[in-house]
Write a structure and sequence with these properties.
mainly alpha; 6 helices; single chain
């Protein structure tokens, strides 16, 4: 999960640079494509991890991403208990894992279907391209 989030953050940072170049040259079509791709990236990233949390009390203000309940479950299963996980903990894990897997699948689809056409458009406008550096699924 964190590997995918890091990759998305990297792509969003690169996208911001492409957006700056497009804005400087007045490329309206490319600006719109940047905004659309960033919305899609945010829709995948934001449910996974809450980036607005900077202090403990911020989780009350912004809520947790899927990493929050997963970390809590890991603490309950591994850190506070000498017994095997309960059936309820297994079910909770499967629910969280299912939601994480949905987001990771969305990221793979986005990589395959949305980023290549954007790269082609950015290259046509001489605004650079996006480099996908990571591997989907690593760091789950």
């Amino acid at each position: 999960m964190y590997g995918a989030v890091n990759e998305i953050l990297d792509v969003r940072a690169q996208l911001a640079e492409v957006r700056k170049r497009a804005a400087a040259s007045g490329e309206i079509e490319l600006l719109a494509a940047c905004d659309e791709l960033d919305r899609k990236l945010a829709a995948v990233q934001e449910p996974l991890i809450q980036m607005k949390i900077k202090a403990n009390e911020d989780s009350l203000k912004f809520g947790l991403g899927l990493d929050g309940p997963l970390a809590g479950l890991a603490q309950a299963v591994g850190g506070e208990s000498d017994s095997a996980p309960t059936e309820a903990e297994y079910k909770t894990f499967e629910q969280i894992k299912g939601r994480v897997d949905e987001r990771l699948l969305s990221w793979m689809v986005l990589r395959r279907e949305s980023i290549p056409p954007f790269q082609k458009l950015a290259e046509q406008h001489n605004a650079g391209t996006l480099v996908l550096r990571g591997n989907v699924g690593r760091g789950r």
